[in-house]
Amino acid sequence: MDLDDVVPAADHVTRQSRVIDAPRPVVWEELHRLKLRSLPVSLVLSAVRVMPVMLTGSWRGGLDRTFLDVVPIPVLASEPPTAVVFGGVLQAWRLTGGEQPPVLDADGVRDFAEPGWVKIGMEFRLTPAVGGTHLSCETRIAATDPSTRRRFDRYWFVVGPGSSAIRWELLAAVAIRAEARAGS
Asked: What domains can you pick out in the chain, each with its CATH number?
């Protein structure tokens, strides 16, 4: 499975990648064990975003959880040590996160058309590269209707750069940890 199975056409796409001097199994393990508390930029930006949700008492985050455990959409497929694909629908622009989203599989996300939502797919892919492993992250977002697209566009204008910064920080942290392990 890949992102084309979840969000084949997107209104917004972000891509980050880097080559890590470590074998794929080591990079995979570090990607999956990296704790949220190890990512200071992510902590600050996430805290700003989830503050209204925290105030309602419905936030279920935790600093000792892994980064991948706090992704706000569920894992749809995991193919160790090659790829992990997340997908779902959200109302992220709403101050407290919006309505409870339905639980969907990849086909359900792809075909979802109820107005007022955005479909989000995110994939971490690990491929062999000269010098180790190429780790990439791609996020695709598609609104279900024009009005929602306009609302989300305004939201993404503000949070999009921070979202990319979080992914860059994650890739750098995985690289530091995986390269340290591979070098020892």
From this structure: 3-183 (3.30.530)
